[in-house]
Amino acid sequence: MDYLNRIRSLREDNDYSQEDIASYLHIGQRTYSDYERGKTRIPLDSMIMLAEFYNVDMNYICCLTDQKNKFPEK
């Protein structure tokens, strides 16, 4: 599974719409849709926001592991 499928799965598993996540990231729904489809690269700060939002670490988001470790606390 690549990271595009991973962020889509996280969104769907948590019953969020693309519009919900786009709003959280302060972008348009169309832009978020382009992220999930791989038409536009996801900025690193948005990837970090997604990891924090779903409370998973970046290794999970980036498919380096299938283990859902919690987002590190500061």
Automatic annotation (TrEMBL):
Q: Which residues form the HTH cro/C1-type domain?
A: 7-61
Question: Which domain of life does the protein's organism represent?
Answer: Bacteria
InterPro entries under this entry? Cro/C1-type_HTH, Lambda_DNA-bd_dom_sf
UniProt-listed Pfam families: HTH_3 (PF01381)
Alphabetically ordered keywords of this record: DNA-binding
Q: Which PANTHER family match?
A: HTH-TYPE TRANSCRIPTIONAL REGULATOR ANSR, TRACRIPTIONAL REGULATORY PROTEIN-RELATED-RELATED
- Protein's name in the database: Helix-turn-helix transcriptional regulator
